[in-house]
Structures are given as structure tokens and as C-alpha cells.
Amino acid sequence: MPKTLAQWLEHLETLHPVGIEMGLDRVSQVAKRMGLAQRPIAKRVISVAGTNGKGSTLAMIDGVARAHGQRVGTYTSPHLLDYNERVHLNGEMASDDQLVAGFEAVEHARLESPTISLTYFEAGTLCALWCLAQKPLDLAVLEVGLGGRLDAVNIVDADVAIVTTIAQDHAGFLGTDIAQIGREKAGIFRPGRPAVLGSLDLPDSVSAAAEALSSPVYQLGHHFRHTANPSTYWRWQGYTQDGDALSLDDLPDSGLPIDNAATALQALALSGLVLAAEPTRDALANVVVPGRMQWLGQWCLDVGHNPHAADYVARHLPEVSPGAIQWGLIGMLNDKDADGVIAALSSRISHWVCVSLGGERGRAADELAQRIAAHGGRVHHCAATPSAGADWLASRLGPDDRVLATGSFFTVAALLAQPLPQA
């Protein structure tokens, strides 16, 4: 009897002795057996790497391209509620049947002699690429995982490669040297193909990697830029694939980082898409990225889990009314920089609820509470789960209070799976 999607996902967890193993040899061999290395998965491919901002950049590329009539497929990770979120085809999540067919293709290929072991992420990436390749796509947009050079997504040669930001994260795999992290992320660049640098503050190692490949470099603030117009609108200036200057005016603020929006537009222009003002405005006005500054009533949910992301949240969190409380509900994994995140948020939040996350990487609420106290914050409650933390707040929220729930995908996912209390 064929496996269900849930059974496939359970099976994938047994395929490899470790959850993460950097390297492309095994995944490249299976991709060749699947026929993925012999033909492009789409007419154009854009890959997005970086520490933060990948998801919102990808979402804006997807939305703007589809608003221009393009057929677009995307691959992202991780997911919040359903595994299907990782693969979208023309704006729709991949169905269970499509993903099951993809995993069957992966399994058939990896079991050919000699059998090849794959990690959960590698098998999922190959399944996603197979699903994308089944459709006649004008554009595929791929989010690179924790690395770049040795990430499974990097078996695909991108026509345009983006690095959004560089900061310390996943230190156990990427180390703590920012220049080295930059070189790893820049491993998605290809000789002679455009490299889009989506931050004003990237280590020199990123541009150096592009220049070593003779890749044309387009950096935010130098080769493309955004400037504020009156009210909430902004202007983008960049270049087309042919090197012609291009500008778009009166673009709406989507609530997502405008650096990322400008980067998305530059990448699309370099992919050959002729950007028009109206569809671009419509797409940016309607783009939503679940779990990124996502408001549900009094709650703001953000998956930020490193100091760079937390700093952005702190700077963009609206002020509460006089006398109201800005609560913070936080749950983090034990391999993340909790002190850095707490320090970044402490300028805006002094009233906290700490929650424990389960699993081998989970961090206990009590430990978070000790760290918050060391930074001068007040912890009102420690809960065993994010849901229990939300339940504790239910009877304590005032009508003008707000709650930032943050620290991990796991924290946000648990809260998205339930109705959140409102005063």
C-alpha cells in the first residue's frame, strides 16, 4: 500500500544517521539519477541565501513575478504548520499527492545500486526540485538553507543569486567568523551570472567571492537603491538585464523590510522580467509572509531567532498606548544566541512570559527567565509550552496590550495552530 505524506516524512527521519550533514556529493548523485541534473527545473532560477530576510525576499519575488503573468514555483524551509508549505506552484501549496510522487521518485533513485543515504533536508529538497520540474515554469525561486556552498539547494545553478544579510547563526555548522560565513553563503554564485547583494552591511568576502567568478555585482545602496517618497510610499532605482537604468515610483510599504523588497525587484529585473509599475505595486501591497511580523489581533508573531532579526523586530514594533503593556512571549532552541536576542528586544519589552520548547534542541523556560532577569527584564510566568504561555496571558491581557511572540519557528508554529486570546 502506498505511503501517505505523513508516513513518508516519518520514513525520511530514519534515512541518515545525522540530521544535518554538509556536502553535495550524495544529493548530486541522486539528482542525476532522477534526471534533475540533465535539464533546467525552470526557464529561470533565482536562489536566495542569507542569515535573515530570505523568506520575505522570496515571497516578494514570487508575488511580483506572478503579478506580471509569470508561472512561478518556490521552495522554502522550514514550514510552520504543514510540510506542504515548503513547495508552492503558481501560488498554491503542493498537494499531498504531488509531494508523495516526489518522495517516491527520490526513493527509487537513491535505492539504485549503490544505495545512497540522504538526510531529511536533502530528500525534501530533491522532492521539491522534482515537483517544480514537473511544471512548465517561467521562474523557480529557491531558498537556500542554513549554508550556501554546501547546501543541497546549491546543486542547482541559479541564473541570479541573492545574498540578503550575513550575521552569526548556526554557529555549530558555519562557525562564528563573519567573513567565513559570508564566503559560505556566497557559494551560490555562478561564473558570469549576476550576484545581488541585499544589505548595506555585508562582509567584503561576499563581493570578493563574486568578483573571483567574474559575476556582475549589484549591491544595495550602490547599484540599486530605495528612497522614501511622501507618506508610506517609496521609490526603487535599479538596472535591467541589459544594463539600462530603471525606476519605479509610489511603491507601497508591505510591512516587510524595504531592503528585501528592493533586492527582490533587482533580482527580477536581472532575470529578464520587464517590471511594470502597476503589477509591482499590486503585488507588494498584498504580499504576506506567515510568521514574519504577522499580526493576529493583539499578537505579533515573528520567527526571528538571532540578534540581527530581533533588532529589526524591536525597531519596527509599534508603540503601545500609554499605560498599556508590550508583552514578550519567548521560546528558543538551545543552539541560538538567547542573550543576543533578549538584549535586542529589551529596549521595547520589559514584561515577559517564557516558554519551554521540547526535543533535543529545546531550551527550558527557566533558563530563558534567568537570562532575561540578567538583562533587567521582569518574567511574570514560565510555561511548559507556547500554548500554555498563551493560555496564561488570556486572563491578563488588557484591551490595549500587545504581545510579541518570538524566538523560534517552533514557538510561532505552536501559536498559529490555536486561537490566540484577545482582550
Q: How many structural domains can be distinguished in the coordinates? A: 2
Rough outline: globular
Major β-sheet annotation: 8 strands, mixed
Beta content: 15-25%
Instruction: Work out the helix count.
Output: 15
Protein name: Dihydrofolate synthase/folylpolyglutamate synthase
GO molecular function, one term: dihydrofolate synthase activity
Keywords: ATP-binding, Folate biosynthesis, Ligase, Magnesium, Metal-binding, Nucleotide-binding
Pathway: Cofactor biosynthesis; tetrahydrofolate biosynthesis; 7,8-dihydrofolate from 2-amino-4-hydroxy-6-hydroxymethyl-7,8-dihydropteridine diphosphate and 4-aminobenzoate: step 2/2; Cofactor biosynthesis; tetrahydrofolylpolyglutamate biosynthesis
Secondary structure layout plus pairing:
Elements: H1 5-12, H2 25-33, E1 44-49, H3 54-67, E2 72-75, E3 87-89, E4 92-93, H4 96-110, H5 120-133, E5 139-143, E6 160-163, H6 171-174, H7 178-185, E7 195-197, H8 204-212, E8 217-219, E9 225-228, E10 233-239, E11 245-252, H9 258-270, H10 277-286, E12 294-296, E13 299-301, H11 307-316, E14 326-330, H12 338-345, E15 351-355, H13 365-374, E16 378-383, H14 386-394, E17 402-406, H15 409-416
Parallel strand pairs: 1-5, 1-6, 2-5, 6-7, 7-8, 13-17, 14-15, 14-17, 15-16
Antiparallel strand pairs: 2-3, 3-4, 9-10, 10-11, 12-13
